Prior knowledge:
It contains 10 helices and 10 strands.
Amino acid sequence: MLELHDISARYGAIRALEGVSLTVGAGQVVCLLGANGAGKTTTLNCISGVVPVSAGRISFEGEDITSLSIDKIVARGIVQVPEGREIFPEMTVSDNLLLGTWLKRNDTADRFERVYHYFPRLKERAKQPAGTLSGGEQQMLMIGRALMVQPKVLLMDEPSLGLSPVLIEQVFEILARINQERVTILLVEQNARVALGASRYGYVLENGEIRLHGASADLSDNPDIRAAYLGG
């Protein structure tokens, strides 16, 4: 469904990615692991068109999307949920969600109901300023706004960042339910144990290059992965 073919990316003279290839099959959850600065977020940003690819190719459903603009990539169904809480704090929760309909204005009421089905707390707080939400609720709002776009692929960047263990469990339970509706997920996550538990296949980035990949269960049992990311 989504394929990266030997992509490279740079920030000026600094190499961020070099020859990265990966595949995300339809309906899968695939994780991308690596230390800070390994190139995980850059990989997502290349897919979503935020960072230009300096070499290689990205294809989605058989189409080359390497040079497409951000809005055209979103229109094809690839939506990124960035790291952090990038909401509009002065706007209400419902207005933040409404921003997810900017490309397609049809079936708006149905889309709201879908989001509120996953996140009842957002419905309870629909008229509140988004800035009054807790950190976990803001993460839910970010995911909900992405769902309003009706994505085929969600690019999730550090969804557990800053959340308590209880909230992490809740967020990942919801992501599993979303995936069951055939939404494909490419997951960047510092919490390797959670990421491998939630995914079917994984890739490990080091210094902008893929160093290892395989079934998530196999990566969990790999002694090098256990030592580097799972605390032994």
